[in-house]
Predict the structure of Translation initiation factor IF-2.
Amino acid sequence: MKEKEKLEQKVMAPKQKKDKAEVQKPAGSQPPKQVKPIEIHGDTISVKDLAMKMNKSAGELIKKLMGLGVMATINQEVDVETAEILANEFGFEVDIKVDESTYDFIEEIEDDPADLVPRPCVVTVMGHVDHGKTSLLDAIRESNVTASEAGGITQHIGAYQVVHDGKKITFLDTPGHEAFTAMRARGAQVTDIAILVVAADDGVMPQTVEAINHSKAAEVPIIVAINKIDKPDARPERVMQELTEHGLVPEEWGGDTICVPVSAKTREGLENLLEMILLVAEVQELKANPKRLAKGTVIEAELDKGRGPVATVLVQTGTLKIGDSIVAGTAHGKVRAMIDDKGRRVKKAGPSTPVEVLGLSDVPQAGDIFHAVKDDKTAKTISEKRLAKKREEELKATTKVSLDDLFKQIQEGNVKELNIIIKADVQGSIEALKQSLMKLSTDEVRVNAIHGGVGAITETDIMLASASNAIVIGFNVRPDANARKAAETEKVDIRLYRVIYNAIEDVKAAMQGLLDPEFKEVIIGRLEVRAIFKVSKVGTIAGCYVAEGKITRNAQVRVIRDNIVIHEGNLGSLKRFKDDVKEVSEGYECGIMIENYNDIQEGDVIEAFIMEEVTREL
Ligand SMILES: Nc1nc2c(ncn2[C@@H]2O[C@H](COP(=O)(O)OP(=O)(O)OP(=O)(O)O)[C@@H](O)[C@H]2O)c(=O)[nH]1
């Protein structure tokens, strides 16, 4: 194949998407394949468009369609399966561009390697509370303000750039791994390097460990800034020792973790830190194509009373220009104005540049991907399609990995690694659980404990689980209210245990597809027995009044006499007058029979309940 053709094919059919198309191909005999692929976006294509793609007349297609028993007009849409059969008839191969994500309907541009040029690295600062993240970010920013920009530093746009040794570095201004992981959960990968701030007088603390694990899960390299070295009780060596316990071995001790002692207060070591950032960035060989339409991520966004929706975006590739039509998540618009981190109006923004963008129709969410597209109409159409799809997906509520369907997902090849987050009341339990769970790894599935921490399950744990497709195991701890809510929206599986053995057995069973669903009893109604009818050969029928709730035909019942449960069993029949019914509501009367039980009496109370599948609590 000629080079150009090869490249063309690569551009037209990125690998991942091609696999998807192949899966969807109808089985059975296929006509001989032609090299020429055509793309179909979405679920349907019009006869006219399909004809154009194949350079055929619509008439030819309509004739073929008639031969296949499909009566179609030139503007009619045909589904992809039909399009595929048609295309094959004409000797074409269809590449169906379907992306499962909500944030799609955009054709990804594949860059010509010749267009790629080095871009600044993007840095996020993480660390334990009060270890000096904000102080460090401020110190770096202030140290790098030139006299001419002095007024600009009050401008706060969620990210800023500094220049060191003639090279730019972009800092994201929302410190903390929470923001970082929340973005990652939305599919945005913006950080190239994580700066882990550890106070020299305090050492490695729980959130330090969280930050380490969140960075590792995202496969982002970590540079440690040992902060507050100006303090008399600073003990950098101890920090390094503690870091080693968490898998970060300092370079000085033969490892590969760069540790830089700094003080945000005296600004000592800041130059060195910037140097190290540039060093790590250089190894990463970060590149982007400034010549293409821009693509990036929304860092933060708000509705400004005077200016309308304002989004701070980080351009990751391409160049964003005034007048560009853009889509960001489900918002769209035209770039009306751009303001850089120094508060200056700019006309364009290249790779790794943060800018505030005015002109969107709506406020996008932090973590939304934005794209510049060829015109307003395209932007609007994409945002409408995304909105429709979002609504649809909200209805469907896609599920992440859960123990209940783990086996199915393993069999389908969707899961090769089972990521687990462990929260427990004491460190010892975390270690014990971690060791035992990791031992469950098989040839098919590797079990990874990606994070462990002491304390309640928090929203941050859920976001990490969502971003890493992990399940959360709580041992003697509970999720807090925010975590429960987040788990529901993010569809993260939380499992709570009081016995380590049970947790391990559950994961093991889930991996083998042997996990039994667990049920919880839900009381749906309370009935009073008001009359008894003994029918020979049939049994005892209780005439009841539904005092509370309802009773359904599939319910189970409990007979209560003087507050003592005397029988529990299935309902044999449920009737209103002579008719069998499915359900009787509060305030109505009904006749019931209980399976294999005839000893019911007037004055008994009947509790109706159903068993509902639940998150297990062992
Ligand atoms: N002596 C000294 N104090 C520092 C240094 N860096 C920060 N501090 C102080 O430590 C405290 C916490 O600093 P912040 O920058 O707010 O810490 P943070 O990590 O951003 O805290 P959160 O945003 O609350 O998580 C403040 O009182 C700072 O003045 C330092 O290098 N030396």
